[in-house]
Amino acid sequence: MSKSKKKAETIFLVCEETGDYNYSLKRKPGGEKLRLKKYSARLRKHTWHNEKKK
């Protein structure tokens, strides 16, 4: 039998302050959720973004 490969899934980074879906990434499933400081165009500053599946 062949090994089952984990397929990359699309995740979105959602701004904590506005709730906007600003970024999308592809990554392998598993591991802990991302929390990154990214630029929010609406607020014109860097804010925390959390990983969320749509």
UniProtKB/TrEMBL annotation:
GO terms for cellular component: cytoplasm; ribonucleoprotein complex; ribosome. Keywords: Ribonucleoprotein, Ribosomal protein. SUPFAM superfamilies: Zn-binding ribosomal proteins. GO terms for molecular function: structural constituent of ribosome. GO terms for biological process: translation. InterPro entries: Ribosomal_bL33, Ribosomal_bL33_sf, Ribosomal_zn-bd. The keyword Kinase does not apply. It holds the Pfam family Ribosomal_L33. Belongs to the bacterial ribosomal protein bL33 family. This is Large ribosomal subunit protein bL33. It comes from Rubripirellula lacrimiformis.
